[in-house]
Amino acid sequence: YGGNPYGGGDNAVQSNPYTSVPASTAPTTQYAPAAAGHATLSQQDFLSRVEAVKADIRTLTTHVGQIASLHQRALSSPDATSSGQLESIITQTQVLNTSIKDQIKYLETDAARSINTSNHTIKTTQVGQLKSSFTKQLQEYRQEESTYERRYREQIARQYRIVNPDATDAEVEEATQADWGNEGVFQQALRSNRSATANSVLGAVRARHNDIQKIERTLLELQQIMEELATAVILQDEPIQQAERYTDQVKQDTTAGNVQLDRGIKSARNARKLKWWCLLITLAILIIVGLIVGLYFGVGP
């Protein structure tokens, strides 16, 4: 569970010597998303990606079952091997969940971009089915983790009573919520019973506390993925709507510009005609004035 579960990729997970999960469980959807503005997927390519995501969801179902089995093993007979296997498969599952979510969001965006094509209905239906199937599996995974979180706390309560048999119910409840990773809390619990058995039991309590913390992180990650999946349409549709609005605005501006250009051309033509008329009138006036002056001086004394 430690660190960023997405940073190492599948290779980091598969190098774990404790893992019992084969490399073939890596996400099958390895497509590179197309850049924004590119043509939408053909129906055949789209459906191929849908089938790949379905295969990943089936792998997720298998992982959830294996995680439940390893949790049960950790409760009944914990050992280093099962702990390593559990950590490895949960890390793989986190990577798988992120891959599935990203692929569904990509397909959802492609379906939205295909709104004016004959494939839009088919794509939208397929995306809806994928989201429903994936969400259902995430909820089952979350339910499994919540169940084992409760069972780990119950085991802490039983182990704490072994060390402190006279503890009240309130004290036991407080112990199930305590931060056993804190050395001060651990040492405080040992003060009343410093036997070797007590030290061993409280060590097991600390291990269960660590398991609970890991489960809590997993639950937060699952919640985040489900929220992102639910808001994918809103997040992806807005840029498309903005692009469509921009395209419409460009068309309107182009049409308005053409109208203004036509008016400008007509105005320019009218201005040239007016200029020529003014020139002709001026010439006519000059000719008339010249004739008058000529006649006046021609018939004079």
Automatic annotation (TrEMBL):
Key word Kinase present? no
- Which InterPro entries does the protein's record reference? SNARE (IPR010989), Syntaxin (IPR045242), Syntaxin_N (IPR006011), T_SNARE_dom (IPR000727)
Q: Which residues form a coiled coil?
A: 131-158
Residues annotated as region Disordered? 1-25
The record's Gene Ontology biological-process terms are: exocytosis; intracellular protein transport; vesicle docking; vesicle fusion
* Bias (Gly residues) ranges: 1-10
Q: Which domain of life is it from?
A: Eukaryota
Membrane spanning segments where? Answer: 276-299
Quote the cellular component terms of the Gene Ontology held in the record: endomembrane system; plasma membrane; SNARE complex
**Bilayer topology term:** Single-pass type IV membrane protein
Gene3D superfamilies (alphabetical)? 1.20.58.70
Q: Where in the cell is it found?
A: Membrane
Which SUPFAM superfamilies does the UniProt record give? t-snare proteins
Q: Where in the sequence does UniProt note compositional bias of the Polar residues kind?
A: 12-21
Q: What is this protein called?
A: t-SNARE
What is the source species? Dissoconium aciculare CBS 342.82
Kindly list the organism's lineage. Answer: Eukaryota, Fungi, Dikarya, Ascomycota, Pezizomycotina
